[in-house]
Design goal:
Blueprint lengths: L1 E6 L3 H14 L10 E8 L5 H12 L5 E10 L7 E5 L3 H9 L16 E5 L4 H14 L3 E5 L1 E8 L4 E9 L2
Antiparallel strand pairs: 1-2, 1-7, 3-4, 3-6, 4-5, 7-8
GO molecular function: hydrolase activity, acting on ester bonds
Protein name: Putative phosphoesterase NCTC13832_00660
EC number: 3.1.-.-
């Protein structure tokens, strides 16, 4: 089974982010807006309960995540992804580090850049047009996320579903 760990914001902020994603992100229906803490990793079905217990153990003592989405940014020229940048805090970095070592399904594939994706799968022209619009619109959103979500990819439905949450703080 394919799992991942993420911070999922309030419904009101999800709605705001989805306002962009509905137009600019073909993956919109597959997953809620989120900050990735652990990218997808694979586990045997038989190990699922053990993995959930390990996550609960690793999250002990982790602080709630203060999220401050500050501006639109992008991953160009590597890829045409546009996102709302989230200020990196010690609490976010700590949470990321707890789950991205060799002792828990491997190191992270990319450096930790907390963000909410709002556009992907764009042509170069679409990217330039959309990035200019989104950058001008701007964002300034703060909230506290008090739980880490375990997500499982449902192959039949072709989307991610939240299967467990772990309190922070």
């Amino acid at each position: 089974m394919i799992l991942g760990l993420a911070l999922i914001p309030s419904k009101s902020f999800q709605d705001e982010v989805n306002g962009y994603r509905k137009r600019y992100d073909k993956q919109y229906v597959r997953i809620k807006p989120h900050v990735t803490i652990k990218s997808q990793f694979e586990v045997n079905d038989a190990d699922f309960e053990q993995v959930k217990a390990e996550i609960a153990k690793r999250v002990e003592g982790a602080q709630p995540a203060e999220i401050h989405a500050t501006k639109a940014s992008n991953f160009a020229p590597t890829t045409h992804v546009i996102y709302f940048k989230v200020e990196k805090t010690d609490a976010l970095e700590d949470l990321f580090n707890r789950f991205n070592g060799e002792d828990f399904y491997g190191e992270a594939e990319h450096p930790f850049i907390p963000h909410f994706t709002i556009a992907q799968g764009l042509t170069s022209q679409e990217f330039e047009d959309i990035y200019g619009q989104v950058r001008l619109a701007g964002i300034d959103h703060k909230e506290t996320i008090n739980q880490l979500s375990l997500l499982q990819f449902d192959e039949a439905a072709d989307k991610w579903k939240e299967v467990e949450t772990y309190p922070l703080g």
